From TrEMBL:
Gene Ontology BP term (one): regulation of DNA-templated transcription
Ranges for domain PAC: 220-273
Phylogenetic lineage: Bacteria, Pseudomonadati, Bacteroidota, Cytophagia, Cytophagales
UniProt keyword annotations, A-Z: ATP-binding, Coiled coil, DNA-binding, Nucleotide-binding, Transcription, Transcription regulation
SUPFAM superfamilies: Homeodomain-like (SSF46689), P-loop containing nucleoside triphosphate hydrolases (SSF52540), PYP-like sensor domain (PAS domain) (SSF55785)
Protein name, UniProt field: Sigma 54-interacting transcriptional regulator
Keyword hit for Aminoacyl-tRNA synthetase: no
Chain segments annotated as coiled-coil in the UniProt record: 264-298
Location of the PAS domain: 16-64, 145-217
Domain Sigma-54 factor interaction: 305-534
Molecular function (Gene Ontology), one example: DNA binding
Entry keyword annotation includes Coiled coil: yes
CDD domains reported in the protein's UniProt record: AAA, PAS
């Protein structure tokens, strides 16, 4: 062989050796070589990344120097490989732990073989491995999680099941059998057989949910009754989701859990029975507690307002405008026009609907009690105050308070009410701690507050604070087109109350009612209809001589020199006439209030204003 040929071969050998060395360095697997004296002679970059030792640190050290392999079987295998360095033997395999430079343990799978190649001169034990650390750790974590899941499901008494829709076979965990009360060999693993144990009333629903789950691949859950081994039905909670699809994207496996909810269902039933008993107890409470509960929980439908009047529609539009806000509302109108119903509707349409609506009639409460009723009092505030009393404002916190007959509020309490309006705070009677409240105020009156302000009996600043959004409730005489509707409503209402069957309302009767002026407004109309139903002897509403229509008594021959009574004088005479007929009786079913069709407390307030003293007048 010529010198040039030898040189060429040497050059090619060098190029091949260099290429292989570079290739080994860049391979994404662990590659290292061990010489016959167990010295590490090759250490690629993946070895550096995996075990942390650089090639300079590891070069010319033995496999025992760095204690890489410890006393693992690979050390013995390497020794045995050099004892029989047969290059024709196949690659051997080892899998185990190797200690890295930072002290951590890496898990490698290594194929090794004694051979000679261009990279290193002479025989070397070449090792090619893969870092399985992440995989092994993941498997270990999965195993731990599975063990934990098994313990949790066992402790929580949750069963796992797996249904193969192709084979129709259902796998049940041991917890499933424990819950259902069967042994593995006592229970069929076919889906149809499982359905047979479901209560007939629940079976179709469960089948539909399973079918929908297969078609839509959506999770589902349901509750069902299942026939246990002892023949009794237990309640099960079933939850499932699609776990596997075939090549046509059809669901083939559904997995899920079951749990025994029989105890929960029994508890719910017991709770319902207990609630029913609570309802019975609530109905047997004393009248005072019942009234307070009704005030706190009272709610009204918007349909309770009966009207086709354009005049009243304007009022309803105002109600719709102000209800969603927290603005203070002042409802003005004559007695009996339904100012309380306006307040109820505003509260019902407001954001405070789920909070209490507390009502206070300022005219009905004695002057010496109204402060304690509104603001409450502390224990020991006065003689007889043995316990603390919560006032109406505190009860109405977060809700609404309706102050009816606000014009009758004593002057000394108006400043305290003004403070609540301005600052949202007050002190109970006998207390020194300030109470903060968030209350919407709706006030109502049948009096002219501007005149009261001019007379000095009502604070001007309080009037301006109340008069933020005034609503004038029209009297019945200004909405007479509503009378037929109201009459029909009251007839239906009092038919049930009086056990009568009034089905005919004569046209003449309606005309008679429509022509009347109704000074007592809707309240007077209501009482009139109730009385007419009681006195009617047939299915026809009868209005006899007892109903004297003032419109029929007014002469059409009116001369200019007739002197008219003022409205207050006429009202005074009207009340005196009523008291005369009732022999001075004000309240009760035979009192003047009933005859006039107005509230007893309102009548007493009007009598005080008009200076009527029944003891002096009828003694």
């Amino acid at each position: 062989m010529s010198a040039s040929s030898t040189l060429t071969n040497n050059l090619l050998s060098f190029v091949n050796q260099t290429f292989l060395q570079e290739l080994i360095q860049e391979l994404p697997v662990v590659v290292f070589a061990i010489s016959p004296n167990q010295t590490i002679t090759c250490w690629n970059k993946e070895c550096e990344r995996t075990l942390g030792y650089s090639s300079k640190e590891i070069q010319d050290t033995t496999i025992l120097t760095k204690n890489l392999f410890g006393h693992t079987p690979i050390v013995k295998s390497i020794t045995e490989a050099w004892d029989n360095p047969n290059t024709t033997l196949p690659y051997r395999y080892w899998e185990g732990e190797i200690k890295a430079k930072d002290g951590s343990v890496r898990y490698l799978s290594v194929n090794y073989h004694v051979r000679n190649n261009f990279v290193l001169e002479g025989l070397h034990l070449w090792c090619i491995g893969t870092d399985l650390t992440d995989k092994v750790q993941g498997q270990r974590i999965m195993q731990v999680n599975q063990e934990r899941l098994s313990l949790v499901t066992k402790a929580a008494k949750i069963g796992f099941w797996d249904w193969n829709a192709h084979t129709n076979e259902v796998y049940y965990s041991q917890e499933c059998f424990d819950i259902m009360g069967y042994k593995c060999d006592e229970f069929s693993h076919a889906y149809e057989k499982w359905l047979e144990f479901i209560h007939p009333e629940d079976r179709t629903r469960v089948q539909n949910k399973v079918r929908d789950c297969l078609h839509t691949k959506c999770d589902f859950y349901t509750e069902l009754r299942f026939k246990a081994q002892n023949g009794n039905y237990i309640w099960l909670f079933l939850q499932a989701n699609v776990f596997e699809w075939d090549a046509q994207n059809k669901a083939v496996r559904i997995v899920g859990i079951i749990s025994d909810i029989t105890l929960r269902k029994r508890t719910e039933q017991d709770l319902q029975e207990a609630l029913a008993k609570v309802e019975e107890l609530k109905e047997s409470l004393v009248e005072e507690n019942l009234q307070l509960k009704q005030e706190l929980q009272e709610s009204f439908r918007y349909e309770d307002i009966i009207s086709i009047s354009d005049t009243y529609k304007k009022v309803l539009r105002q109600v719709e405008q102000v209800a969603p806000t927290d603005a203070t509302v002042l409802v003005l109108g004559e007695t009996g026009t339904g100012k309380s119903l306006i307040a109820n509707t505003i509260h019902r349409l407001s954001s405070r609907v789920n909070q209490p609506l507390i009502k206070v009639n300022c005219a009905a409460l004695p002057a010496n009690l109204i402060e304690s009723e509104l603001f409450g009092y502390e224990k020991g505030a006065f003689t007889g105050a043995y316990t603390k009393k919560i006032g109406r404002f505190e009860l109405a916190d977060k809700g609404t308070i309706f102050l009816d007959e606000i014009g009758d509020l004593p002057m000394e309490l108006q400043a305290k009410l003004l403070r609540v309006l301005q600052e949202g705070e007050f002190e109970p009677l006998g207390g020194n701690r300030t109470h903060k409240v968030d209350v919407r105020i709706i006030a109502a009156t049948n009096r002219n507050l501007e005149e009261l302000v001019q007379k000095g009996s009502f604070r001007a600043d309080l009037y301006y604070r109340l008069n933020v959004f005034p609503i004038v409730n029209p009297p019945l005489r200004e909405r007479k087109e509503d009378i037929p509707l109201l009459v029909k409503y009251f007839v239906n209402k009092y038919n049930a109350k009086t056990k009568k069957q009034i089905t005919v309302i004569p046209k003449k009767t309606l005309q008679q009612l429509e022509s009347y002026n109704w000074p007592g407004n809707i309240r007077e109309l209501k009482n009139t209809i109730e009385r007419a139903i009681v006195l009617s002897t047939s299915t026809k509403l009868e209005m006899d001589a007892w109903f004297q229509n003032p419109a029929n008594t007014i002469s059409t021959d009116v001369s200019s020199d007739i002197v008219f009574d003022t409205l207050e004088e006429h009202e005074r005479k009207h009340i005196l006439e009523a008291l005369k007929r009732t022999e001075g009786r004000v309240t009760g079913p035979r009192g003047a209030g009933k005859l006039l069709g107005i509230n007893d407390k309102t009548l007493q307030s009007r009598m005080r204003k008009l200076g009527i003293n029944r003891l002096n007048e009828f003694k």
